[in-house]
Design brief:
It is built from 18 helices and nine strands. By secondary structure, it is α/β, with parallel strands linked by helices. The chain has two domains: 173 residues, Orthogonal Bundle (DNAb Helicase, Chain A); 260 residues, Rossmann fold (3-Layer(aba) Sandwich), CATH 3.40.50.300. Helix 2 runs antiparallel to helix 8 and helix 4 packs across helix 6. The longest helix has 28 residues.
């Protein structure tokens, strides 16, 4: 294809479908609700169609722009009311004047087909975005630095993956239920005991904690070596056994190390000691049974050092294609995470990362559990508080829930041995859908990473 052919190419568009959407709305204003669930004004290729759709949305919201337009809202969305809005915005002649609106009004479009028309318009918009992105990406590849830099290539690939995932997300519509439907559904779930949240699997904690809900960001924080990773591993296994697909991302340990921890937890075997002394009676059989169980669960553990929020988005979409819809994401641990943009101040970078993860939880429609360290100057003799969260106050502000793992210091000089069951508490420091400040007593077997409720 020569240069002239390229210049003559028209971006993907379907003007007939765009006219079909607008004509359907003019025939029956209820069609606007269905169209708006699928389309935004910028999805229209023709500028005049964008302006008309914007005017329709303004009328539906009672924001016509001038008194005549606002008074005409009660009469519905038609060629006259739209003319008033477009005139007040100074774009009436730009769209072809009242004559073009009259032409749309006389369209043979069927309002019941508005969703089909809207999907065609959206698909063409997605194709235009892909084409524009591909052109920009090709241009950037020719602007690579003269000195070879793997970091530059890695950054370009990460940005490309992020943009592809963002464009792909346009293909998934999330229509809002009506108020009556939302109320009826909420009451039905209460009456029938249906639980949408992912539970921890520990009954006393689940009775006090509302679980991991869609769109929620939950932080699990503790001092080093107090069982954060072990507790998160227990939650992941419990959730997977309950049928929820779980993705566990570790930024600190390799996947092999994490699977060994999961094997020890499930088989109740101290693998650290077993590697030095060999298996004791029955341990090998328990580990083999644990391996079979873990292989059958919808659970994936991945080592992703220096992961950023946009990397997490790409990974989650990839795993969803392989495993089916994910129900819980765990990140161990947040303080090692990089922001999507490098900032001079670390706290600012982490603040942006928290906000990005919060948005990601809502975008993907699932909960995210972040493991986090407490500040080094935290008084270990007192229960931790929200102010002890490390790196950024944004974690405290934007997290829906905050859980702490806390262990009372031993009395006197009595040391705690490695083989003991240790008393430990899970403190609900913050909870969006329930009371905060509750303390749930548990026990922790550090030798194989198991937790039990007391």
């Amino acid at each position: 294809m020569n240069e002239d052919d390229i210049l003559k190419r028209v971006p993907p568009q379907n003007l007939e479908a765009e006219q079909g959407v607008l004509g359907s709305i003019l025939l029956n204003n209820e069609a606007l609700q269905y169209a708006h669930e699928i389309l935004a004004p910028e999805d229209f290729y023709q500028e005049s169609h964008r302006e008309i759709f914007k005017a329709m949305l303004l009328l539906s919201e009672g924001k016509g722009g001038d008194p005549d337009a606002r008074r005409s809202v009660k009469d519905g969305i038609d060629a006259i009311t739209i003319t008033n809005v477009l005139r007040s915005r100074g774009v009436l002649e730009q769209i072809g004047g009242p004559a073009y609106l009259a032409q749309l009004s006389s369209s043979e479009a069927t309002w019941r087909e508005v969703q089909r028309y809207a999907r065609i318009v959206r698909e063409k918009a997605i194709l235009r975005q892909l084409g524009s992105f591909a052109t920009d990406l090709a241009s950037q590849t020719y602007e690579a630095p003269h000195n070879w830099s793997p970091e530059w290539t890695e950054e370009l690939i990460a940005v490309a993956e992020y943009e592809i995932a963002r464009i792909a997300s346009r293909q998934i519509a999330h229509p809002e239920p009506s108020k009556a439907t939302a109320l009826a559904t909420a009451l039905w779930k209460i009456e029938h005991g249906q639980e949408d949240s992912v539970l921890t699997g520990f009954a006393p904690l689940d009775q006090s904690f509302g679980g991991f809900n869609v769109g929620h960001l939950t932080v699990l924080a503790a001092r080093p070596s107090k069982g954060k990773t072990a507790f998160a591993t227990n939650i992941a296994i419990n959730a997977a056994k309950a049928g929820s697909a779980v993705a566990f991302f570790t930024l600190e340990m390799t996947a092999e190390e994490m699977w060994l921890r999961a094997l020890g937890c499930e088989g109740q075997v101290d693998l650290f000691s077993a590697r030095r002394r060999g298996y004791k009676y029955g341990e090998k059989e328990r580990i083999e049974a644990a391996r079979v169980t873990l292989e059958s669960l919808p659970l994936q553990m991945l080592y992703r050092p220096s992961m950023r929020p946009r990397d997490l988005r790409v990974e989650c979409r990839r795993l969803a294609r392989a495993m089916g819809p994910l129900k819980l994401i765990i990140v161990d641990y947040f303080n090692l995470m990089r922001g999507d943009r490098r900032e001079k101040d670390r706290w600012r970078e982490m603040q942006e990362a928290v906000l990005a993860l919060k948005e990601l939880a809502g975008e993907l429609g699932l909960p995210i559990l972040l493991l986090s360290q407490l500040n080094r100057d935290t008084d270990e003799s007192a229960p931790p508080a929200l102010s002890n969260l490390r790196d950024t106050g944004a974690t405290e502000e934007h997290a829906s829930n905050v859980l702490f793992i806390w262990q009372r210091p031993p009395k006197g000089d009595a040391p705690m041995t490695y083989n003991d069951w240790e008393d430990i508490e899970v403190i609900i420091g913050k909870q969006r859908n329930g009371p905060a400040g509750l303390r749930v007593p548990m026990q922790f077997a550090k030798k194989w990473g198991g937790f039990v409720a007391r």
